[in-house]
Amino acid sequence: MIPDDLLYTKTHEWVRMEDDEAVVGITHFAQSQLGDLTFVELPKVGDTVTAGEEMGSVESVKAASEIYSPVDGEVVAVNEELADTPEAINEDPYGEGWMVRVRVTGGQPSDGLLTPEEYAELLEE
Amino acid sequence: MPYIPHTPEQTQEMLKVVGVASLEALFQDIPASMRPRSFNLPDGMSEHAVCARLEELARANKTDVISFLGGGFYDHHIPAIVDALSSRGEFLTAYTPYQAEASQGSLQAIFEYQTAVCRLLDMDCANASVYDGGSALFEACMMAVRATKRSRLVVDECLSPIYRTMLATYTTNLQLELVTVPHGGGVSNVQALVDAMDDRTAAMVVQNPTFFGTIHDYTALFAQAKAKGVVSVLAAYPVLQSILKTPGQMGADVAVAEGQSLGLPLSFGGPYLGIMTCSRDLVRQMPGRIVGRTVDHQGRTGYVLTLQAREQHIRRAKATSNICSNQALCAFRAYVTLCVLGPQGLARMAEDAVDKAHYAATRLAALPGVRLLADAPFGNEFAVVLPKNAHEVVDKCASRGLVPGFPLGGYYAGMEHVLLVACTEKTSREQIGHLAEMVGGML
After folding, report:
1. Between chains, do B318 and A64 touch, taking CB under 8 Å as contact?
2. Which member of A39, A63, A66 has the closest CB to residue B284?
3. In which band, very low, low, confident or very high, does the pLDDT at B4 lie, cut at 50, 70 and 90?
4. Is the dihedral of CA B136, B142, B147, B153 positive or negative?
5. How far apart (Å, rounded) are the C-alpha atoms in residues B199 and B197?
6. When comparing pLDDT for B42 and B431, which is higher?
7. Which of A20, B213, B215, B440 makes a 20 to 30 Å CA pair with A80?
């Protein structure tokens, strides 16, 4: 459950680069650890996010945890559907469960991000 | 043997880690007058000696005075059934029961309390209560700070000075700016409140009725707040909410109240009750416990603590608050009071109190040199300007068994002559006559 066309973070977010925009969500592993999600708090369109810093949070029946931005940039879209259907993150973390779309500024987004192979190794540890 | 678990070495090591030279330096924020003079406690006493001592202390209370004191705490009737039900062993706990499998009755009572206060204030959601009206107000401000990610609180000077002192204390070490908008002669200066809101403002905080007893409709103010992205916080008086425009109708985002007037006796230091309610979109910012109704695997109704991921035992430093309990027993008494009175009974209680206060205002304003502070609608409390220092009048009357009200000089600059007078449904026509005669005789 680690698609090979994505990049990852050590904090279990995934990134799909589409030109200069990054689509971000949390991984299959993250959702399976959290359990049934009940609430998602996302940044607003227009907010500035910074790689490695908190940009929102997810809440499940047993825990709440922060979502960290994998990239520097400006939020250009958020998945409004998640407000009513947070379970989309459990059911389809890499598709319907996407969270934000960020227009990337600054350096190469791949800096500091993990390849699918590296992320797989992280999970094995 | 000292009952202190730390060795002197461990104490030194801990002081070193936090970067403080001595225990004395660690406790320097505690005023010397509030430190214990000694830990050498006297020897134990027999049961009857303890009882005799407590009775002696109790005799120092004056329970037969006629009182027109209010200021946020009111002597309303407490139906006998409130004591009867709340002294049942099953409900005698100050603590929130979190073991759903062992506490269905208590959880159901708290759920029903939440439902009742939501209906009273016309709001979407309530928590299981916090310590008192002041702590509820502070927590409401913190909800606004978290929701807006802003750091400025605009507070009406008509808000209880007790609440404002608490806010100032609680926010001392937080990076928050507290802005107080001066009152306009016992009423809110709504235009000044509107002008005080900027794009850094998290909350607009007002009280209805105001501390001066005056009644406002803050609908337009709250609409302006919404337009500026500001969370509107209203401190309400539960009994009068039965006849006033509600916080929900005015568009308040968070409504809080001191719940003492619902079934809790007046008592120095409480325990009192902090009622907290909010609109649905702020429920995840709500501090403390929330009881929810659900169904078990067989479809039977059950009650549980819900939305716990906001709380510190799960979310640690990111929790909404360090409150992890509620005023279970006080909330239960408030709930029983609301049930026994019902909406009509509560409204009658409120109307009775308001009628008495208006009669008292007429009698006092008829005295030479006495006038009402504000020319504005009021409920069961009003401020009068006396031709003399109000504190002196209160002292003299009190020595003769009648407390005519609350002198405002200690709380508002230039109000040394102002007296805040409250009535409830328990106030009698005769008592109001005594009030007018005694105050009149001293002018």
Report:
1. yes
2. A39
3. confident
4. positive
5. 7
6. B431
7. A20
- CA distance to A30, A59, A98, per residue, from A92 (Å): 12, 17, 8
The beta strand positions in A42-92, using DSSP E, are 48-49, 54-60, 64-68, 73-78
Residues 316-355 of B with CB under 8 A from A: 318
Q: For residue A16, what is the enclosing H or E element?
A: strand A13-18
Q: Which residues of A touch B310 (CB under 8 A)?
A: 64
Amino acid identity of residue B129, one-letter, is S
Structure tokens at B386: 């006396």
Pairing of strands B231-236, B201-208: parallel
Domains of chain A by start residue, with CATH: 7-107 (2.40.50.100)
User: In the structure, what pLDDT confidence band is assigned to residue B98 with cuts at 50, 70 and 90?
Assistant: confident
Beta carbons of B257 and B237 less than 8 angstroms apart: yes
Q: Tokens 């003079």 label which residue?
A: B37
Quick one: tokens of B131? 């310590």
- Enter the DSSP assignment of B378: B
Give the C-alpha separation, B91 to B174, whole Å. Answer: 37
> How many other CB atoms are found less than 10 A from the CB of residue A72?
18
- SS3 of B17, please? helix
Buried b (16+ CB within 10 A) or exposed e, B295-311: eeeeeeeebbbebbbbb
pLDDT digits (tens, 9 = 90+) for B336-360: 999 999 999 999 999 999 999 999 9
Q: Which token pair is A44? A: 């607003």
B24 Cβ contact partners less than 8 Å away, ≥ 6 residues apart: none
**Phi–psi pair at A83, nearest 5 degrees:** -60, -40
Question: Which stretches of chain A drop beneath a pLDDT of 70?
Answer: 107-110
Mutate to test the interface with B, among A40, A53, A59 (most CBs of B within 10 A): A59
Residue type (1 letter), A84: D
pLDDT band at B324, cuts 50/70/90? Answer: confident
Q: In this structure, what token pair is assigned to residue A20? A: 């200069």
**Does A36 reach chain B within 8 Å, measured CB to CB?**
no
Nearest of B344, B347, B337, B353 to residue B428 by alpha carbon:
B353
List, in order of start, the domains of chain B with CATH numbers. Answer: 66-76+342-441 (3.90.1150.10), 80-336 (3.40.640.10)
